[in-house]
Amino acid sequence: MADIQLGPAHGRLLLRTRREGLAAGLGHDLTIELTRWSATVRGETAVTATIELDSLQVREGSGGALPLTDTDRRDIGRNARKVLRVDSYGTATYRSTHVRTTANGYQVDGSLTLAGATRSVQLTVTTLEANHYRVIAEITQSDFGIKPYAAFFGALKLRDQVAVEIDLEAT
């Protein structure tokens, strides 16, 4: 079976953050898209991916005391790049170690390298219809040495866990 090459033309790679803390009502739950990434799927046995972290774009913000403005989006993007240390670690990489078929898709075990640290991350791939897949994972920022963003002396902060979602059309 030939390798399948994937990227932004095949789907969207989204990060979903949630807020917590005493001042959580002031902040936003965010949807951030990473617009430059590539992946290779080798049959049903291996997956590799590279994500350019500088490509992050704040797409949506729900909740919060006020609607998310374009200035807010730019500020959040700048803060996210700083928290992720994009100047030092511009890419994240994923390499599968084991792929197994499930009743409705695949379970992919692998290693994610982010901010200079490598940790195990499991992807759940669900087949939605022919050639249409949803990939989900949860990343714990502190596992990678990343301190979740906080403001107002910690009264508003991002949860340590970030949801990763990819809606993918693969032919």
TrEMBL record:
Q: Which domain of life is it from?
A: Bacteria
Lipid/polyisoprenoid-binding YceI-like domain: residues covered: 3-171
Extract the coiled-coil ranges from the record: none
Pfam families, per database record? YceI (PF04264)
Q: Which SUPFAM superfamilies match?
A: YceI-like
Residues of the signal sequence? none
Q: InterPro entries in the record, alphabetically?
A: Lipid/polyisoprenoid-bd_YceI (IPR007372), TTHA0802/YceI-like_sf (IPR036761)
Q: Write out the similarity annotation.
A: Belongs to the UPF0312 family.
Its recorded name reads: Lipid/polyisoprenoid-binding YceI-like domain-containing protein
